[in-house]
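User: Predict Nitrite reductase large subunit's structure from this.
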Amino acid sequence: MIKVIVVGNGMVGYKFCEKFIAKSGQEKYQITVFGEEPRRAYDRVHLSEYFGGKTADDLSLSTSEWYVENNITLNTSELVTDINREEKTIHTHLEKTHKYDYLVLATGSSAFVPPIDGVEKEGVFVYRTIEDLDAIMAYAKKIKQKGATEAAVLGGGLLGLEAAKAVRDLGLNPHVVEFAPRLMPRQLDKGASDMLQSKIEELNIGIHLNKATQYIDGKESITGMMFADDELLKVDMLVISAGIKPRDELARVSGLEVGLRGGVVVNNQMQTSDPSIFAIGEVALYNQNIYGLVAPGYEMADVAAEQILNGSESKTMRETIDMSTQLKLIGVEVASFGDPFIENDEVTAIIYENKLSGIYKRINVTKDSKTLLGGILVGDSSDYNSLFQIYNNGMALPKNPEDLILGSRDGSESSAVGVMDLPDTAVICSCENVTKGAICCSILDETCSNLSDVVKLTKATSGCGGCKPMVSDLVKAAQKSMGKEVKDVICEHFQHTRQELFDLVKINKYENFYDVLDHHGKGDGCEICKPVIASIFSSIYNDTANKHLTTQDTNDRFLANIQRNGTYSVVPRVAGGEITAEKLIVIGEVAKQFDLYTKITGAQRVDLFGAHLDDLPKIWKVLIDNGFESGHAYGKSLRAVKSCVGNAWCRYGMDDSAGFAIELENRYKGIRSPHKLKGGVSACIRECAEARGKDFGLIAVEGGWNLYICGNGGANPKHAVLLAEQIDKETVIKYMDRFLMYYIRTAGPLIRTSTWLEKLDGGLDYLKEVIIEDSLGICETLETEMQTLVNTFECEWKQVLEKPRLLKRFSHFVNSDEKDDNIAFVPLRDQKMPKAWS
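Assistant:
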């Protein structure tokens, strides 16, 4: 048997073994793996999830049986200390010697610790392994018992921000300290970094930029960090995540060639200066670079395996390694691709910045608008896959390149790349180097029949997971091309789409979830299908959430949004944002009586936060007695119709926008839909109500109103498109009734109007035919159905107060009237906020 020894049992070392045993000819080889950590290879990319409750086994990339089944000998807790290249042997700290024919160095990297005076003090940690995390968790628990609240993270890069999230999850207040003038300086420009910083600071994480740390303060344990500008940051724990350095010490003592700044020098075959020894992953210096991402490491593993099995004529490493990446940092989506910083006379940067939504997008294109060179996305990275494919495959850009990040703004088809437009050579999963051709062919030749089969065969999506939406779309497209029916069933219990279930409920007049389940489903149902069918009942019969309690989400069950400390918010309806002084006083009195935090929202309402569950009926009794109704802030329904003051006050106003907004909000209040709905009415083209960023919006113009539909704000903002122009109020309401009812009938669960329109066959032109031209002959029915919902509206909270049996659910404990004494608050400016959980 030919002996292959792998030194290092991290993600890349494991991937080498996985790649090797999948290739033909591997039967002649015996693989032995040495890892100095006490456990099998685990997922370092998602290491922060260890703080969220995942165990080491959850993060493990394999089972112990996997090594046995594949004839791989795994030695954990054993450090290789020397290589005898002449005799082709390795020596371990257990005084054992093993012979090899080929040796693969996958020793990875260790945390770089800057030479700062005092880093050896107690309370200073690195963020690299599970053992590091265990030590951090134990120390955090210890110092919190002594009243400590502050901790710092040294490093504002990818790993540093992950570490900051970990510190926050441990119940400490994190401070990120970065030497550079911005966060993530290698991936983001100033605009993107500023946006990321503002999003992170909203989470009460301190950011300290341009800070050079002179020394760690404290005697035996850390008490603070002294910066070069003589500022002292008082902290009781420090986590260092300031970069990595290659673990090349074994190569050095063995006489292998290493770089001036570290790393084992390799060629494009992953061979070191000794042809029998290969280096892969973060220890390998390829083209004078160390690559700290998973995808290049996995490609190196594949190249090394191919070279050992088939020699120099086989696969080699690409000359240029793409460092594009997509991730979520502390809940904020961040992505960069290509050259994100390129600036010269031949390049134009197109930038979209929305500080209100916390979104920054930049693409760099050539002056002739023909080539995409790179880009940055912060706050919303949903366009990453299509942008990366355009860049990576040199695909043609649309006539207006800005459409790539702004979306189509005139009702025409989206400028995004369709998955089937990509060449077969397009790499969809960069972690596993899986192409579009490999995915589609596995379906077309019937090797695979569904997404899970494709994942099992190709390993696509098994790395970072960012490619999963595109892989899923490719599988569906390939299935459709074969004439197979592809349905977006709502869950495993119903092999039907939401639209099919809507029709089944309506035709059969079902009024109970279990009737639907018994006749058209299987099993007991789940948290996905139960709220969907409850919503369908509401959309057909106008049933309130009170009628189907056991199938509702938590928010609908208690008619309020649950907040992060277990309290609830109260949002009375303020139609069109218009409110009398008397009603404002009532809201103020309620907030004062029940000690609630108050916030005026972008939807022109007042949110009241911090209500205990058992106080909700008391609060709503006061509000309803004073003429308020439920604002449905918790439901998949109409939230609000925003308006400007209109021609009643504004000298530019062309119509009564406030009055029309109130009329529309009162008409559509309470209707249940697949996703929440928002509206806006502006009295002129100055657009103070932001009507073109809503599910429906109206702008007053000469000759009537322009009606826009299918826009939204949020993480993935979309401009609304023009459905009809210069129409009167009666026509507006007629078209609105038809549009909303058709959307309610046909959209999938939790699908926004913008996404629904994008996926609608025929797009806007088809929708105009249905809504305006009545091409399906259903407009009268749609209008009648909407009018029925309008006529049967009931305030859900008024129902609760009038029926004592419905009040029973508003109690923290089933056997006691006491409040939950675990709920605690801390001061926030002149109000309060939830105390962070330990």
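The mean pLDDT is 91.
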